[in-house]
Write the structure tokens for this entry.
Amino acid sequence: MTTPTMATPAPTATTSRRGLGSILQAPLFGSSVALIVAIIVFSILSPRFLTLGNFSLIFQQSVVIGILAVAQTLIILTAGIDLSIGAIAVFGTIVLAQASGAVGPALGLLITLLVCVALGTLNGGLVTVLRLPPFIVTLGAFTAIVAATRLFAGSETYPVSDPLLTFLGTSFNIGSFRTTYGVIAMLIVYIVVGYALTQTAWGKHVYAVGGNPLAARLSGVKTNRTILSVYIVAGVIAMIAAWAALGRIPNADPNAYQNANLETITAVVIGGTSLFGGRGGVLGTLIGTLIVGVLRNGLTLAGVDSLYQNIATGVLVIVAVAVDQVMRRKTTR
């Protein structure tokens, strides 16, 4: 006597809609579609856009913001925000240029690393020890660091020519595609941090602290130590961005990258990382960085004034945050 087998229910329209809905709600889906649409639109607007040389330029122009966006991602994942990360990197370029002239490029890099880590640690200490809001701490740090940078530089630019300082701007060919070591450094930062977030206990703690700090604390996660470590890592990444900036343009300029904070936040949020913490990752941030790069490059080729480009970037931030808010409400129902 054979036992009757249970028939597998056929997929219903409701199941199909749920499957499609989960795909549409995936953080990387929206950002990937936005990137593809932007490429298509600018390819139509300018025949120069869809060339290997222009795509190489987009990657090179995205290096500094792309690296800083990784640091911003880590901090936003803990439900914080860093308005000073760009200022720390710019201050790092001045320190690197001046220290290298005084003690040599190798020691200059080490001194710059220590300075950037110290600034990141100070931010993290104020957030964790004094329990101050990250927005207030980093806004104050931004104001102080910008002023200190201009005082330290004497409102002058410092040209650099040492091969070690400009190394990340050195270009080479991969087949017919020309790139720089700065682009490679950016991708390495994404790979290392992406691995740390997804494959280590530290990464799981970062997500836990951002998602529900009370639950993380009750489960044994040292929340303050985790948050502090994130700000320290952000300082290390800011130093790498400072080095890459001198490779990109061999001048330490105290007025450079004034919109870096806005652009890093834009890249992170467009890439699907929630401003409320605990959700997202660096792969989405890389896509978001490319969207910002494509937008600026495409608008420049189309002859759009840089002020209007800033307006477009600001609108992108608002739209991305609005979408994040809507998606968060849907997932909590």
The chain is about 70% helix and 5% strand. The mean pLDDT is 88. The longest helix spans residues 223-248.
